[in-house]
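W.,

You were right to be curious about this one. When I first looked at the sequence I had no strong expectations either way, so I just let the prediction run and decided to look at it fresh. Below is the sequence, 483 residues in total, followed by the output.
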Amino acid sequence: MSACTNTPPPADPAPAERPTEPTEPPASFAALGLSPALARALAALAYTDATPIQARALPALLRGEDVIAQARTGSGKTVAFGLALLTRVDTALAVVQALVLCPTRELADQVAAELRRLARFIANLRVVALAGGVPVREQRPALITPPHVVVGTPGRLLDHLARGNLDLQHLRALVLDEADRMLDMGFIDQITDVLARAPVARQTLLFSATYSPEIRALSRAFQRDPLAITVDESRPSVDLEQEFFLVDPHDKHGALTALLLHHDPESALVFCQTRADVREVHAGLVARGFTALALHGELDQRQRDEVLVRLANKSCAVLVATDVAARGLDIKGLAAVIAWELPSDPDLHLHRVGRTGRAGRAGRAFALCTPAERARARALEGAWGPLRWSDLPAATGAPPRPPAMTTLILEGGRQDKLRPGDLLGALTGELGLPAEIVGKIDIHARRSYIAIRRDRAALALERIRAGKIKGRSYRARALTSRA
């Protein structure tokens, strides 16, 4: 992890935390003695067997102990700390009792959504997400009656605390999620300011993909006798098929094109080291006829949201991103990951390939390696064992397959009291569209995004513009790529 300029001082060599207890972790959630409401939610979500991080962490979490856990995105950490937080909440008290700090808006939204799923059978429990992308004043009404659980980014939480919209004096449990990412983004001062508003007598949980000196110093500053949990994730998933390709540095675009055309993944994430590389790779893919999008730090929040919506609803097949921009994203069912070049850190490559092959699904990871990167390949071999080297597939000259769906933007959202069921009902009812052409529907504050089968998108757009939804006309347009 690259150190930020305002991180805490390095920790002492001796560890501050206790080692993981040498007890056999539970293999299933049923052995944990959870409340009937939480057990029912887990059954409804088909969560039966605990993941390694859940099995190792949950006994201590449910006892109310502080925990520092090394866990990457996709390991099941949100369910682990979510069950612990929800166990501690008393819905009879209208005060904020649990707080989760996240590095990005996307991760905050994902965590809040997962907590709501886990709390679906707990009557009257409220979860609120507070992050950028919308004005502070629009979030204030959700805080007039204090929610029980708040999930947010450090800067936005400080905004609400400074305005008196949020009170943490009754906080029982606090989570620092993806703490290494928050330090990378320079959030240590904001984190410190937020935690200074919380009671000292609380449960503090810290989750990080790495155990750097800065992370250990953060733990020393804010945790009390934490239990350290490290799940061995030093190798890729068994469901993951990896291939490495030695390529000419002057023909990497041709190599990437050949891989995408040959394997034709439904969705692919191409990792680059820098923003400049992202722009170059994205432009090359678009020039070759791919429906590709780029994700980097120069996008505003709306552009970022729309990129992720299009990838999720299958109206874009290829996303090109930096490691920093992709941290915290949970892309469901990602078919393939491609490394434009090998990173110098083997752990970073593990985090990249861990984006695919999740939840029992098969995944593929490809890496383009120039002769100059042989030393990096040897470092990977030292960490994982022999790598599988393959020959590039032959170029076919065939054009890329267009995405299955097109995304339509409707200029109305949650503030207009629209719900996915409203849109689906209007599209397949009054507007007369067949249900099988309608895909994923995402409702945001002011806009809704509707995936429509590509060959019927023009018809759907025409009918939306001419018709009404819940008795009201809405402007609509197709969402197209921006270079």
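Here's what jumped out at me. The chain has three domains: 29-230, 240-384, 405-478. And, maybe more interesting for your project: Residues 1-15 have pLDDT under 50 and may be disordered.

Coffee later to discuss?

I.
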